Amino acid sequence: MFAGRMMDYPLTLTHFLERARTYHARCEIVTQNPDRTCSRATYADLHRRAAKLAHALTRLGVGPGDRVATLSWNHARHLELYLAVPAMGAVLHTLNLRLHPNELAYIAAHAEDKVVVVDRSLLPLFRKFAPQVRCIRRVIVIGDDGPVDSDGLDYEALLAPEPDHVDFPRLDERSAAMVCYTSGTTGNPKGVVYSHRSLVLHTLVSCMHDTLGFRDRDVVLPVVPMFHAAAWGLPYSAVATGARIVLPGPHLDPASLLDLMARERVTFAAGVPTIWLGILALLDEHPERWDLSAMRAMVIGGAAAPPALIDGFLSRHGLVVTHAWGMTETNPLGTVAHVRSTLDLDAAASLDTRASQGYAVPFIEQRHVGPDDRPLPWDGATMGELEVRGPWVAASYLGGEGEDRFTKDGWFKTGDVVTIDADGYMRIADRTKDVIKSGGEWISSVAIENALMSHPAVLEAAVFAARHPTWGERPLAAVVLRQGQTASKDELCAHLEPRFAKYWLPDDFLFLDRIPRTSTGKFLKSKLRDEFGDLLEKRASG
Ligand code: AMP
């Protein structure tokens, strides 16, 4: 045994905050305000204000392990909370402002939130659930316009008298830094506790070149909300590398985002496919309006990015999409569709690979298993449930719920049905709860959706299971057409026919104005099933 060993230096977010002040003090944080003006601060301000915030929260009685919740859009003060709360040893809990008040009440009580920091514009929502949550002791309101009513403290007034220096405590890297809740559409949301260590390792691996590759010259725009899975770690990656960060506030429509990207010379943006579908449609309409020449990567994740979207950005606008997969339970990054240089693919195969969900990033392991829990072959065809493990994969949920998701040998069952090919590229066919089983055979709704969205008239498509008297289930397609475009059911069927076995073709196409969305902007198939799931049965009976 060697006597020498390395230092036991804790992997904590505090280091990123200190580093930002030491080396990236002049780096800018840009916030788009509700009135569309932009506020600018620096990482030196971030450090100074995080110190003041830590003092203020301590004065309010927040101690180690206490939960401080936020109900906020993406803005500079939310970033302060992202750093200051974990650095002082407390735990940040980001509440999803798109949830129903009853769900918010459940989550805030479940997480035992002690202090809640709320954007002034979200106070009406907060008041709808706060009275039901007994554990909330203090409310702090963010907003510049006018005094706060008697039940809240003003964020700026709270910070003003505090010293702008603090010696953050030396924390155990395994201590909790953040709690995020799953956006489960069935059952109660479950809390996932991110530790300092998991967030730091996730950040370091995210910054690797073939992962997301952040650099100090990047200008990072998290379109993904800071209330969803730590905004995919982007705030921490930006602070760690000294990249400029642009926070869009509440304006998430395609035109506002494109204005912001062009004006701030954004190099890196990330969000769910529904956002990017809208952006691509607008860019197609006005190809010359926005100068996006600074953009080096647009990360799409959270739901499957259709190949037509990836190809459309590249071939028509010269914009590169990086497709990634992750979950709240995985901090969230798990896989990235990076095309390895040794693969030597032609253009079509390269697009196919970039449209896959990719392969596991360093320190994440992936496998897929059959109903008997045995690992399946990596042949690109056999479907099974994806399991992952690694240092930023949840080992349990807060409160010990959902035990069946964690296997005895240390894997997390993702609930995604996938294939994995010989090179390790994973392709999602469905969520287990969304799979369509027709006459005992699995049909991949994602594959049909991707094909439908490659039709020039189709803006969005969601394929879901409808009950069927003979086959058990059959696929139905909900389709939103592009403005001013038409396509008949026969045309859409003809578009699909060459690509799929006959039994995969949807029994019907429903033309909708909008596909319902989850609180994180994904297609909400359970709502489609609730509304149209009995359509075929009704037709059969009469
Ligand atoms: P959430 O915890 O809300 O982020 O949801 C995680 C789930 O989103 C995963 O289990 C997948 O079903 C889905 N998801 C995330 N990224 C992708 C992707 N790139 N392609 C398809 N589905 C995805």
TrEMBL record:
InterPro entries: AMP-bd_C, AMP-bd_C_sf, AMP-binding_CS, AMP-dep_synth/lig_dom, ANL_N_sf. One of its GO terms (biological process) is fatty acid metabolic process. Signal peptide: none annotated. Residues 31-398 form the AMP-dependent synthetase/ligase domain. It comes from the Bacteria. The keyword Ribonucleoprotein does not apply. Pfam families: AMP-binding, AMP-binding_C. One of its GO terms (molecular function) is ligase activity. Keywords: Fatty acid metabolism, Ligase, Lipid metabolism. PANTHER family: ACYL-ACTIVATING ENZYME, BUTANOATE--COA LIGASE AAE1-RELATED. This is Long-chain fatty acid--CoA ligase. It comes from Sorangium cellulosum. The lineage of its organism: Bacteria, Pseudomonadati, Myxococcota, Polyangia, Polyangiales.
